[in-house]
Design brief:
The complex is a heterodimer of chains A (about 525) and B (about 375). Chain A has about 525 residues and is mostly helical. Chain A contains 18 helices and no strands. Chain A has a single domain, classed as Cytochrome C Oxidase, Chain A, CATH 1.20.210. In chain A, helix 4 runs parallel beside helix 16, helix 8 runs antiparallel to helix 9 and helix 9 runs parallel beside helix 11. The relative contact order of chain A is 0.11. Classes of the chains: A mainly alpha (about 525), B alpha+beta (about 375).
Chain lengths: ~525, ~375
């Protein structure tokens, strides 16, 4: 009896001090930690981008040496992909999936704790990989995030640190994914059938499945690289009977689905935000669910469109080209459904909605340049130029980062119990959107004019576009100080948020998060709710 | 509509995507470089097709979304239709998307496939050139007549013409000739790309890839390495001079004579004086070695070791020759034996042993190199 009482008392509030965070098994605390981690890394990765753009501001070498420049390019990408967008996505999943499906917590809370706490050491190693070359650690990792051998064999100790970083992050992602899938399958409240799941939950279901399929392949690939570097194997060394192109296939078998890992959670967020502010149920729920399945399937079998220049046979190339072009069908379907959710709605323009609308337009544009890139003969001119850089930043910044921003503004009132300042939010949207477009739109032209990626210096004919890009990048970068300010201000106080937060939040296949108070108590849904 | 080549105007034109679909802008750096071969012209046309498609789709989506936002904004009193997703349109309209998108896709796949076939079609070549990428220079071997051109970056003042686009030896090709390129690399990945006359194909160590072209216009064409190859990736330009067939024949004859003379000079049993070797050595060192080991011999430690005062440069000649000729496994040091003749190696090694205060004092003669190979 007394045991039961202490047990009860133990569960009333969160533990205090460092233990609350270090030992946490609470999905909300872990979600918060993921989000804060991603925000910190966003500023680190963003600072690297600022240095890159400052160097490219003018022709000539101003700030950094060529090797360090390409190390910045490598680590900027790895940080943005693995330490910003993915953790932020997992953070949202942690916070929202149990709340949305009426579960008391994630299915495996202790594993959840471990998934998160693997990240900080991995991030330290990731940053260390840039620092060791300054202290006798050999050649910098100047390969770009693709880590292609033989160049990556020439790199020094930094490369080994990156390989282990990828192993650790992979373990973390796989555990996180297992947890998410298990939670979605097993922990739904009675009545919450799969076809009633909020779109965000569906999107994470596919994302987690993708991660489980592709992360081990990548881990295997970089392990082979490690063996080539230190243990005398020659998987990727033609002189020893190996094949440098094999690594590219392994990398992109992971790398292409990875793009969808970054994208899908944000598509899920759109599926929540657009119905809310159009005050109308999501149009084409079923086709979205199956469309994402199609995207999942196609995404796994089109990887070599990143390598059209490696000299594949014409049949193979044609196959990858047609497969890639077909991706426009599920993606088109998503855009179509979101647009027709707006149709005959009653639309208001709060910050999350502004981001969602921006995504529809800018991501569609990225999709069309994607089709341009899929067409092999034309790609043989675009490949490895700034055209590609512009394309994938249009896909990944609106496609995933802006989706995360929409999510933050959408759920911040739920998390903190306070409304953010709408005026500041709108300023932030326009500021980032203008800065972003000014940065990346001109890069299409510098790419077409013939400027390759990953070069530290360029001929004067590219100057104008690079100046525009750099000015845009500084505007874009600075806007994030406002983002930080809004978040801190909202955590500290502000207008009280209602349980529902948004007028249209419970329309259509909404989550159950709007039925609990804002902010939610430390433990929610200890008794499973009944979903009609 | 004709615009002067003026940076302010160029800045002003960025505002509109419309610029993309107007070929008149091709020369203002807003579009792909003007093609100078049949193949690149076809690729250019395909590019314009996909660009227009991308442009129209973007415009349609944007305009449609903007229309909806205005028409169905709440402030205009719009009321949401809660049943729209359950009516016939809501249930079956998803079928429209694959139909429309597939239609667009198919309109692309046809032309794309035709052009792809041209890319992969290899007519009988009248001239075959092996293009080899190395860190950080291009080597062109004319397989039909044994001519070799090694092309390094050349310093150039900062302007639009030559900055990072000048090389010491231009790659020379005849006009109106079926040319086959064989692409390979000696160390890491590179990609040979001259947008006006040829598409990209990676140069991969251990592979030989084939592309072909037939240049239709004489002129000078620029390009650069398009696959990240490390420190000097930004410094691997390509300059191609396309000249008439007659001039090309003359060039081959002159080039062969030069090469024969150099080879004769190198293999002659002449004993060279220190001054001659040092002078030649300095020139060759700056061209071939200074990118890593620096002009002053100080290197960029820890990756590129200093030669000034180094144990190898001051130690036994045999070891020094061994490193230069065979390279050093596991490092960025390439094997120079295949690229330099005996005289050149002798000159470089002599220079390294006696420059920057190095005082080995000994001379290395071409004969020493020959026996060390």
């Amino acid at each position: 009896m007394s045991d039961a009482i202490t047990h009860e008392a133990h569960h009333h509030g969160p533990p205090t001090g460092a233990k609350r965070w270090l030992y946490s098994t609470n999905h909300k605390d872990i979600g918060t930690m993921y989000l804060i981690f991603a925000l910190i890394m966003l500023f680190i990765g963003g600072a690297m981008a600022m240095v890159i753009r400052a160097e490219l501001w003018m022709p000539g070498l101003q700030l950094v040496q060529p090797d360090f420049f390409n190390n910045l390019v490598t680590n900027h990408a790895l940080i943005m992909v693995f330490a910003v967008v993915m953790p932020a996505g997992v953070g949202l999943a942690n916070w929202m999936i149990p709340l949305m499906i009426g579960a008391p917590d994630m299915a495996m809370p202790r594993m959840n704790n471990m998934s998160f706490w693997l990240l900080p050491p991995a991030a330290c190693m990731l940053i260390l990989s840039m620092i060791v070359p300054f202290f006798g650690g050999g050649q910098t990792v100047n390969t770009g995030w693709t880590l292609y051998p033989p160049l990556s064999i020439q790199s020094g100790m930094g490369m080994d640190l990156l390989i282990f970083t990828i192993h650790i992050l992979g373990v973390s992602s796989i555990m996180g994914s297992i947890n998410i899938i298990t939670t979605i399958i097993n922990m739904r409240a009675p009545g919450m059938t799969m076809m009633k799941l909020p779109m965000f939950v569906w999107s994470w279901f596919y994302t987690a499945l993708l991660l489980i399929v592709v992360m081990p392949i990548f881990a295997g690939g970089v392990t082979m690289l490690l063996f080539d570097r230190h243990f005398g194997t020659s998987f990727f060394d033609a002189a020893g009977g190996g094949d440098p192109v094999l690594f590219q296939h392994i990398f992109w078998f992971f790398g292409h689905p990875e793009v969808y890992v970054l994208l899908l959670p944000s598509i899920g967020v759109l599926g929540m935000v657009i119905p809310t502010f159009a005050r109308k149920p999501l149009f084409g729920y079923k086709s979205l669910v199956y469309g994402m399945a199609a995207l999942y399937g196609l995404g796994l079998i089109v990887w070599a469109h990143h390598q059209y220049t490696i000299g594949m046979s014409i049949e193979t190339t044609t196959y990858f080209m047609i497969g890639t072009i077909l991706i426009s069908i599920p993606v088109g379907l998503m855009i179509f459904n979101f647009i027709f959710t707006l149709w005959r709605g009653s639309i208001t323009f709060e910050t999350p909605m502004l981001f969602a609308l921006g995504i529809i337009v800018m991501f569609s544009f990225a999709g069309t340049t994607g089709v341009m890139l899929a067409v092999v003969p034309a790609d043989l001119q675009y490949h490895d130029t700034y055209f590609v850089v512009a394309h994938f930043h249009y896909a990944l910044i609106p496609g995933s980062l802006f989706g995360l921003y929409a999510a933050v503004f959408f759920w911040l009132p739920k998390w903190t119990g306070h409304m953010y300042n709408e005026r500041l939010g709108k300023i932030f949207f326009w500021w980032t959107t203008i800065g972003f477009n000014l940065t990346f739109f001109p890069q299409h032209f510098s790419g077409l004019a013939g400027m390759p990626r990953r070069i530290v210096d360029y001929n004067m004919i590219f100057t104008e576009f690079n100046v525009m890009s750099s000015v845009g990048a500084f505007i874009f970068g600075l806007s994030h100080l406002l983002f930080l300010y809004i978040i801190i201000k909202t955590i500290k106080g502000g207008e009280k948020a209602t349980d529902e937060v948004w007028e249209g939040s419970s329309i259509g296949c909404a989550g159950l998060e709007w039925t609990v108070p804002s902010p939610p108590p430390f433990h929610t849904f200890e008794t499973a709710p009944q979903v009609k | 509509m004709h615009l002067k080549r003026d940076s302010k105007l160029r800045l002003a034109t960025i505002g509109g995507v419309f610029a993309l679909s107007n070929p008149a802008y091709a020369e203002y750096g807003l579009n792909l470089v003007e093609p100078a071969s049949e193949l690149t012209a076809n690729v250019f046309d395909l590019h314009m097709l996909t660009t227009k498609l991308a442009f129209y789709i973007t415009v349609v989506v944007t305009v449609f979304v903007a229309f909806i936002l205005v028409r169905y904004r709440r402030s205009s009193g719009a009321e949401a239709d809660q049943e729209m997703h359950t009516n016939k349109f809501g249930v079956y309209s998803w079928l429209l998307v694959p139909l429309i998108v597939l239609g667009i896709d198919l309109s692309l796949v046809g032309p794309a496939n035709d052009t792809l076939k041209q890319v992969e079609q290899h007519v009988d070549a009248e001239l075959t050139v092996k293009v080899t990428g190395s860190q950080w220079k291009w080597t062109y071997d004319y397989l039909d007549n044994g001519v070799r051109v090694v092309s390094n970056l050349q310093e150039h003042e900062a302007d639009e013409v030559g900055y990072l686009r000048s090389v010491d030896n231009h790659f020379v090709l005849p006009v109106d000739t079926n040319i086959r390129f064989l692409h390979t690399a000696t160390d890491v990945l590179h990609a040979w790309w001259v947008p006006a006359i040829a598409i990209k194909k990676d140069s991969i160590p251990g592979y030989i890839h084939e592309t072909s072209t037939r240049v239709t216009k004489e002129g000078t064409y620029y390009g650069q390495c398009a696959e990240n190859c490390g420190k000097g990736h930004a410094y691997m330009p390509i300059v191609v001079d396309v000249i008439s067939k007659e001039k090309f024949s003359e060039w081959v004859v002159a080039r062969t004579a030069d090469a024969n003379a150099a080879a004769a000079e190198a293999s002659a049993d002449k004993v060279w004086s220190k001054e001659d070797l040092m002078a030649r050595g300095e020139e060759l060192y700056v061209k071939n070695c200074a990118a890593c080991h620096q002009v002053n011999g100080a290197g960029l430690p820890p990756v590129f070791p200093a030669l000034k005062g180094s144990a190898i440069a001051l130690g036994a000649v045999a070891e020094h020759l061994d490193v230069v000729i065979k390279g050093k496994a596991g490092t960025a040091m390439a094997a120079w034996g295949a690229q330099l003749n005996d005289l050149e190696v002798a000159a470089i090694v002599t220079y390294e042993r006696n420059a920057w205060g190095n005082d080995a004092g000994d001379l290395v003669q071409p004969a020493d190199v020959k026996s060390a190979r």
